[in-house]
Design goal:
The structure is a single chain. This protein is mostly helical and 178 residues long. It has one domain: Helix Hairpins, CATH 1.10.287.1700. 86% of the residues lie in helices and 0% in strands. The protein is built from 2 helices and no strands. The protein has helices at residues 10-71, 78-168. Helix 1 packs antiparallel against helix 2. The longest helix is centred in the C-terminal third of the chain and has 91 residues, at 78-168. The two termini are 53 Å apart. 13% of the residues are buried. Residues 31-65 form a coiled coil. This is Nodulation-related protein, predicted type III secretion system component. Keywords: Coiled coil.
């Protein structure tokens, strides 16, 4: 944004900088919130991974027990053991599939949270840059205003000296001071 300093006073520049400051703080809060959501999503992925691993370990343990029972089957028929094996393993397979689905959803949520963090960081960076630019503009406006005030004071002082000189100078034939 190009700014014409002669049309911008110090108060106006300060107000604009304050607005930019508020926007930067807002973007920083949003970034902080997005990073917290990303951390939570990461923890959810870890928990889902742990649940999936536990389900797979439990299934392997139960499957091993069922095979041992099948090998030492004296009282129960083989067909009954196979039916039980099929039911139990099927249920455990469904549990593993549900845990895998939960893990996939957690990964998706984590990816979305990371994208939101990147977007929030980009927005904050833009607003921060704008804030810094307006701080510079405010300093420049103040410097230029001070220079104008000093120049006006010098001109006024010069005018006073000139008026005193004219009043005290002898008048010549043409009516002009020498």
């Amino acid at each position: 944004m190009d700014v014409t300093f002669d049309r911008l006073n110090t108060a106006h520049a300060s107000k604009l900088r304050a607005v930019k400051d508020m926007r930067e703080r807002s973007a920083l809060r949003e970034l902080s919130n997005m990073e917290a959501k990303r951390r939570i999503a990461g923890e959810a992925v870890e928990q889902a991974s742990e649940q999936l691993a536990n389900a797979e370990r439990y299934r392997a343990r139960v499957e091993a027990e069922l095979y041992r029972e099948m090998l030492s089957a004296d009282a129960i028929s083989v067909s009954e053991l196979e039916r039980r094996h099929h039911l139990i393993i099927g249920r455990l397979t469904e549990d593993i599939a549900a845990a895998q689905l939960l893990l996939d959803k957690a990964h998706t949520a984590q990816d979305q949270a990371e994208a939101a963090v990147r977007e929030a960081r980009t927005l904050w960076a833009k607003r921060s840059a704008a804030c810094h630019k307006w701080q510079e503009i405010e300093r420049d406006v103040e410097r230029i205003t001070n220079a104008h005030v000093e120049a006006a004071a010098e001109i006024e002082a010069d005018d006073e000296v000139l008026l005193r000189y004219r009043r005290g100078a002898p008048v010549q034939a043409g009516g002009e001071p020498s």
